[in-house]
Design goal:
The chain is mostly helical and 89 residues long. The protein is built from 3 helices and no strands. Helices cover 85% and strands 0% of the residues.
């Protein structure tokens, strides 16, 4: 019977900590979105909105640079996605 009390106490502590960490995560995400919107607003108000066609045409980019960028982007995506897969478990 003592084990039941320990299990209930452990569950209660874990549940409370999950609520606390989820709430903290939501606050940090709200702060992050707010800062991104503020930075975007300042950037657009000072410089306006301009598309740079050279970036879309990849002017001045060698195949080696493109390959390095693709490898970096792939590793970043795989790292992010593997962390989301671990959260589900």
């Amino acid at each position: 019977m003592d084990h039941l009390g320990s299990v209930v106490a452990a569950w209660a502590l874990a549940y409370k900590n999950v609520q606390l960490s989820a709430r903290t995560m939501l606050w940090f995400e709200a702060l992050s979105v707010t800062l991104i919107v503020a930075l975007l607003s300042v950037t657009l108000s000072r410089g306006g909105f301009h598309l740079d066609g050279a970036q879309f045409r990849l002017e001045g980019v060698s195949p080696q640079q493109l390959r390095s960028g693709l490898v970096l982007a792939t590793f970043a995506f795989v790292g992010f996605e593997s962390s989301t897969a671990l959260v589900r478990k």
